[in-house]
Amino acid sequence: MADVAGTISASTLPARYRGPADTAFKVVVVSLSSFIILLAVAMAVMIWLEARPTFRAFGYLDFLTETTWDPVNAIHGALPFIFGTLLTSFLALALAIVPALGVAIFVTEFAPKWLANIINYTVDLLAAIPSVVIGLWAVFNFAPFMRDTFYMPIYLWAEESAPWLVPLLGAPSTYNLATATLILALMIVPYTVALSRDAIGQVPIEQREAAYALGSTRWEVIRDAVLPYARTGVIAGILLSLARALGETMAVAMLIGNRNRMPFTLFGPAATMPSLIINEFREAVEVLHYSSIMAVGFYLFVVTIGINLLASYIQRKLSITKGGV
Amino acid sequence: MTLKARYARDAAIQVGVVLMTLIVVIPLLIIIVYVVANGITALNLDFFTQELGSPARAIQGRPAGLRASIIGTIVIDLIALAMALPFGIATGIMMSEYPEHPFAPVTRLMVSTLNGMPAVLMGLLAYALVVKNTGGFSALAGSVALAFVMIPIISRTTESVLRVTPWSLREAGLSLGLPRWRVTVSLVLPAARAGIVTGALIAFARAAGEAAPLLLTSFGNNYFSMDLTQPMDTLPQRLYSLAISPYRQWHSMGWGGAIILLLFVMLTFYAGRIAVKKMEERALGVNEERRTARRKTRKDRREANQ
Prior knowledge:
The structure holds 2 protein chains of 2 kinds. By secondary structure, chain A is mostly helical. Chain A has one domain (about 40-320): MetI-like (MetI-like fold). Helix content of chain A is about 75%, strand content about 0%. Chain A contains 13 helices and no strands. Chain B is mostly helical. Chain B is globular. The N and C termini of chain B lie far apart (about 65 Å). The interface between A and B is large, with 99 and 96 residues.
């Protein structure tokens, strides 16, 4: 299809395909589908328009670097939330990459087909669980469990034998940065698995056979023949997972404890850009408060669109058809 | 490195990847077990027939339930799907059937970008577009926000099913002298029908679990309402409110809501998945092979009997 349709440009179409009905159908399809371009543009423009009072009051850069978020005194800065988002996302990604790659390698290279099918289904199931349900479970079970079983003992031990760690850890609260990060890691694993699984699955069988023929063991085949070939796809997958983590909203908003002031500690509450939007948007009555939340949303938009574009660029470079049809 | 050491490393790696798989799979089982165990006990007749009301209602033990949230979820999601389908399907057709159109590359890029956009931003957009201009939170604004979530998903799935529809089908139509639109409408779309339905189901399941956009648009409502211009309750947004509330009775109702939402999303998602699988098999000719094999066995058996 690529070769046939791709080479025909609109002007060289035979007269048969330029009849009134064809034109009408095309107009309908194109105008309906233009909506998605409009949607992306509207998102940038509308959120920016709503955020304008904030940018006018503080300036783009000062709003970005200001560390105080104090709606009562009308001082707004996005830095704590940007920092919190980046910190939780990168930590979660660091936690998720190795297990996710492990699962992807296991299902593509080691597991028998029936087991691989079960694991694939299970991982997809994990991706399908609504964020708010995972949040609910974590609020009532995971967070108290982690505080009592791990954070408290670690903190008490640090107080006695490693006092330099204490400012980094902070007094353990039920809802904190560490718990939110762990749940975030759990939530992005399915995406990383699915995307790297696809990338590894595209490695031609000859690539493996050649490595086996040279006398490689199974792991050497994976390390020297499969992973290098799948590298670009895996990297794009990791970037897309990062974008997921940056935008993950509900579970994080329920677990992170929502503290608007830096410095954040590992066992203490923190905040992210989406969690701020969820927690304060409904209570924002002041114009500046409202527009500042929109401004945070605008920065979130900019960050995610940047990472998404980078990922599609990498994917396009990887694909044989160069992103064409 | 000796051969023995290389084999030992192989074994170690194998153990490692199995362990990692367990690390990923076990939390899932824990979550499912907890939600089911806690949710079942919260379900009773009141849960499905009563509205939530004020906190006092649950604390004093008067009947309270999530009827409003369950019905609201279905209403808002269905309206959102009805809004999203024409745009999503048209975008899919555009990307697959009109790749020569100058908008096609931009559209494809936008679809993949919007697919990765956090749903909370769709909520902010719907708020700025609908809530601000109509004067208040409303169920319709919630539907618009969810439609924004669904459109990129439907576009992508529609495009991919249209792509796997055999090119020979289009060639057959064109060689009979059919115009392009007729080939798309009468040949390509019917052939891809199952896949398009699947895409819609997957988009529906994804949107049904989203709480963030709804918190900013349909807002939530403790009482039953069918007025689309007023705030309406939905399960995901209600789960959030119940979980962060300080009332024990509401927490247990939250577990009940979680099991319903989980079932709702999973069933939709799996209906979609199974249809995808069937379709892929058909595209690969698996069923055809199976059928031929079966026919052959039957024939062999007949011949053996004779």
